[in-house]
Amino acid sequence: MKRILLLLILLSFTFLHSQQNRLQGKWILDKIYYQNGNPLEINYPLYSTFIEYDFKGNNLEINNSKFKFSINGSIITTNTRKLNYKIENEYLIINESGSDKVYYFLKSTDFLKRYPEFEPQEITYADKTVFEANSIVKPEFNYSESFEEFIRKNIPSYSPTSATNNFFKAKFIVTKENKITDIQIVDGISKRFDAEFKTALFNSEKFLRNTSDKDLLVTQTFNFFKMFASLSNKEEVQICNFIQKGDKLYEKNKFNNAIINYEKLLSINIAAVTKERFGFNLNRAFINLGVSYLAVGNIPKACEAFMKVGDKTNFQVRNYLLNFCK
Asked: Which one-letter DSSP state was computed for residue 136?
């Protein structure tokens, strides 16, 4: 009897260990459906979004938020949630306890095979041939905090700067040998802030791992944007007003009227620096404009609006482009 019990324990341990091994690595969200098989509504916030699950040992990172996890049968348990899961036809299929939605993830390698448009693009930077990092192919940051959190905490002047209206942008290479080179401050804030960023970046080097076989060009931004605070000109005031009015109508599903306000953004020749500062809000407005066009049956205009945000490699609009703009 003891031998049978021991055998069962060993078999159970082996099964759990095998399941945990199958989960290891990065999984990229491919699609979401309701449990009854219906697609999400076009104005549902998660209709087109980026979610990455990264299993490392007994740790799970969901979009850089870190959790300890355990497996019991077909359930992944963290300190905040229970995830029912199975692996089927290359997909990791997740249904969170209490949710009516089912999430389908692909291993990052399988995602790249299925969607080769996410292969890094070759460009020339600092007289070198490099490849642009993207949401799928990027350096890993092996630390208790995310890369961005680490950089923020290692810039002493970050907190006082965050109370201002500023935009920061830098580019740098992470080589195949995990070295940071060719730092370029594209949009700086001050000599002090820029110098502190470079120091923080070099301090992060020992935690960065470039697992690709390419030298990757990485872009880092900090957008200290305060809506309606320190708007510098009439154009910026107009942009904020059009977005705010459009949002109120969109939230009430008054799509025709929302279109009227969002469309006014198209009549403004928005300067490049303004696009950078207003990036998040402008992208959201154009996505809402696209959804509003879909709601009233104007698919060509919807596709034009979504393309203002990005192409099929931009997860904010990817599913809209795949489903409506082929």
From this structure: S
The residue count for the chain: 326
The string of pLDDT tens digits covering residues 162-214 is 767 788 999 999 999 999 999 999 999 999 999 999 999 999 999 999 999 99
E strand map for 90-234: 91-96, 101-107, 122-125, 128-132, 140-141, 166-174, 180-187, 208-209, 216-224
DSSP secondary-structure letter at 218? E
Angle at CA of residue 280, ends 278 and 104, nearest 5°: 170
| Number of helical (H) and strand (E) elements in the chain, helices listed first | 11, 16
Over its C-alpha atoms, the chain yields an Rg (Å, rounded) of 23
pLDDT tens digit string along 245-282? 999 999 999 999 999 999 999 988 887 878 887 888 89
Kindly report the pTM of this predicted structure: 0.88
